[in-house]
Specification:
eight-stranded antiparallel barrel; 10% helix; mainly beta; Porin; 8 strands; single chain
C-alpha cells in the first residue's frame, strides 16, 4: 500500500506542476492535427485488481480539431498490469497482464484548457497466461469517460476505462495520462 500511496502522490504532484505552469491554455485549432505521446499510470479495479495492484502504459494519440472547442481522437498503445503476490504464504506472484487498446473518441473543451473526453474501442489481451476456455485471447469493448487539462505542449488527463466482454469477464482501470504533444 505504501507504493500505491507514493504512486498516487507522485501523479498528483506531476499534474499540479503541469497545470500550475503559467502557459497559455490551448483548446484545439480547427482543421489541425496534433500528435501526443503519453505515459499512463493505471489502478486496476474489479476482477483485474485480484491479480494486479498497479499498471503502467504508454500511448500515442492523434487529435484532429473539428472546431476550436471539439477535437476527435485516435489512441493506441500498451498497458501492462504487474502481477501481485499470491496470498498463500509463498513468494509466488500472478503473471503480468497485458492489453493493447485501440480507441476513437472526442474531447470537448470547456474553456481555459479544461476538457471532457469520451472514448470507445477495443482492448486486445496479449498474455498467454490469461486465455479463454477455448484457448483464444479475449478482445474487450472499452468505454472510457475522462477529464483533463491541455496546454500548447502538455496534456494531463484522468479517466475510468471499463473493459467488458469475452470469457475472462469484465474489469476496469483508473488511469492518469501525462503526455507531450505537438502540431503536425
Amino acid at each position: 500500500m505504501k507504493t500505491m500511496t507514493k504512486f498516487i502522490a507522485s501523479a498528483f504532484t506531476a499534474a499540479a506542476i503541469f497545470i500550475g505552469t503559467n502557459v497559455k491554455a490551448q483548446t484545439t485549432p480547427a482543421n489541425a492535427l496534433r500528435f501526443g505521446v503519453g505515459v499512463e499510470g493505471l489502478l486496476p479495479t474489479g476482477g483485474l485488481h485480484d491479480i494486479s495492484n498497479v499498471g503502467l502504459g504508454g500511448t500515442a494519440r492523434l487529435q484532429y480539431g473539428v472546431n476550436s472547442n471539439v477535437a476527435l481522437t485516435l489512441t493506441s498503445g500498451y498497458y501492462n498490469y504487474f502481477g501481485k503476490k499470491i496470498v498463500d504464504g509463498s513468494d509466488a506472484k500472478f503473471p503480468s497482464f497485458g492489453l493493447v487498446p485501440v480507441k476513437a473518441g472526442a474531447k470537448a473543451f470547456l474553456g481555459d484548457g479544461f476538457y471532457f473526453a469520451g472514448e470507445v474501442g477495443a482492448g486486445f489481451e496479449t498474455k498467454d497466461d490469461y486465455r479463454n476456455v477455448d484457448g483464444s485471447k479475449s478482445t474487450k469493448l472499452i468505454l472510457s469517460p475522462g477529464l483533463g487539462y491541455a496546454t500548447k505542449s502538455w496534456d494531463v488527463g484522468v479517466r475510468y476505462e471499463n473493459f467488458s466482454g469475452g470469457d475472462s469477464g469484465s474489469y476496469g482501470s483508473v488511469g492518469l495520462r501525462i503526455a507531450y504533444g505537438f502540431g503536425l
